[in-house]
Amino acid sequence: MDENETPQLTEDEKKLFKDLMPEDLNEILDTGVNRRHFLKLMTLAGGGILAAQSAVAEQLFTKPISTAPAELAPATIENGVNISLKVNGAARKLTVDSRMTLLDTLRERLELTGSKKGCDHGQCGACTVIVDGRRVLSCLTLAASCEGKNVKTIEGLAQGTNGANVRLHPVQEAFLKHDGFQCGFCTPGQICSAVALLDEAKNGDASYVTENVRKKAGPLQLSTEEIRERMSGNLCRCGAYPNIVAAIQEVQSGKPVEQNFRFSA
After folding, report:
1. What global pTM score does this model have?
2. For the chain, which ranges sit under pLDDT 70?
3. Three-class SS of residue 137?
4. How many angstroms separate the CA atoms of 210 and 32, rounded?
5. I want to staple 204 with a disulfide (CB 3.0 to 4.6 A). Which of 66, 85, 214, 217 is the partner?
6. At what angle do helices 54-61 and 35-46 cross, to 10 degrees?
7. pLDDT tens per residue, range 144-157
8. Where are the alpha helices (DSSP H) in 47-159?
């Protein structure tokens, strides 16, 4: 099916949406099922509300959902500038408002919603992505400033596929192993920051706690103090910091890291 073609709904599917999402029915009939409708239906499924319509729901879930972002007419964009950049290895060309941030471009124009908008003031790190190998706060970075650059987001870290399973980046695997997240909202920024941090350590880049910043060091073996300092721009409201540090240490050292938990009597 062409990605721009609107899938036709069966009568049973129309009845399903009419019963469960009547407020969205007209939009669905006009434009088809988009990601918002699909996620809403998935939420209802998670609550067990679709039990009686399971056969129809299963049929609908197996239909391809077009993820192609809608193109805006140039006339609707104020102060439009044309930009060309690579995002997760794919060349992208689009027209954006010259004031549009990289974060909004990724989320709203390219539908890469893994990068989160937390504070939108560059203070929490949830929006961290990697631009030309360096981590940046995408909420403070203008999309127009990324002309010709290579942007990597959380969606682009997995290393290809292995059969039906995606081969996760070692940092992603370590975060899973060590429970480096709880609510998960900050996790994309934490992981992107950790990936860039490991490259910084390979290059011997100094941090605030480096003893001698004048001396250009070789690859660094990061201590707990170094990791905490270098990750200090990424906040975790749930407080999973010891787990995050352990995950980064394990990836860098290549050896299992045991955590020592202290419990109050």
Report:
1. 0.71
2. 1-7, 35, 41-75, 160-165, 260-265
3. strand
4. 56
5. 217
6. 140
7. 999 999 999 999 99
8. 54-61, 102-104
Closest by Cα among 144, 157, 137 to 85: 144
196-202, long-range: CB within 8 Å, 24+ apart, which pairs? 196/128, 196/130, 196/133, 196/134, 196/135, 197/135, 197/222, 197/227, 197/230, 197/231, 197/248, 198/171, 198/248, 198/251, 198/252, 199/133, 200/230, 201/226, 201/252
Q: CB of 171 within 8 A of CB of 251?
A: yes
Dihedral (CA of 40, 46, 49, 53) sign: positive
Q: Which tokens is 117 given?
A: 């908008």
Q: Please give the distance of CA 24 from its chain centroid, rounded to a whole number.
A: 27
94 pairs with which residues across the strands? 83
Q: What confidence tens digit (pLDDT) does each residue in 30-49 have? A: 777 776 777 776 666 555 55
